[in-house]
Amino acid sequence: MYLAESGNLENNENLRMKYFPNSLTKNAFTWFTTLPPNSIHSWTQLERVFHEQFYMGQTKISLKELASVKRKNQESVDDYLNRFPLLKARCFTQVSEHELVEMAAGGLDYSIRKKLDTQYFRDMSQLADRVRQIE
């Protein structure tokens, strides 16, 4: 993603390395700032350690797999609903926020789904609020 957005930096390894931290947020930025000084010497090395840290062999998932995700026993509603954007990032099929919410609702226990059946939720936050009220 970074390379696709970096355009003119594509052929300049030093500039790619220089501007890479500007593309990072949250956990990725924290990870990067805690790397030992002078521990990265090339773009290839930076790319490799970044992928080792953040991709850990996680592969692409299908829309069918995303739609079949279920809430785990003892999993909080927030943890369950926070998993969806992470899983969605590994699914390259376009899915609207509303469709993602419907998939997430589909993975809830039947007793909860039954109470949500006729309701419309525009985003995960709204769904989470309603599920918390029910539980």
What does this structure look like?
The protein is mainly α and 135 residues long. It has 2 domains: 2-54, no CATH class; 63-134, Non-ribosomal Peptide Synthetase Peptidyl Carrier Protein, Chain A (Orthogonal Bundle), CATH 1.10.1200. 57% of the residues lie in helices and 0% in strands. The protein is built from 9 helices and no strands. The longest helix has 12 residues, at 43-54. It is elongated. Residues 1-5 have low confidence and may be disordered.
Task: Please name the CATH architecture of the largest domain.
Answer: Orthogonal Bundle
Strand content: under 5%
Oligomer category: single chain
Largest sheet: none
- Any idea how many domains? 2
Number of helices: 9
User: Helix content range of the residues, please?
Assistant: 55-70%
CATH class of the largest domain: Mainly Alpha
Number of strands: 0
**Helix/strand/pairing class, anyone?**
mainly alpha
**Mean of all residue-level pLDDT scores:** 84
Pfam families: Retrotrans_gag
InterPro entries: Retrotrans_gag_dom (IPR005162)
Protein name: Retrotransposon gag domain-containing protein
Domain Retrotransposon gag: 18-109
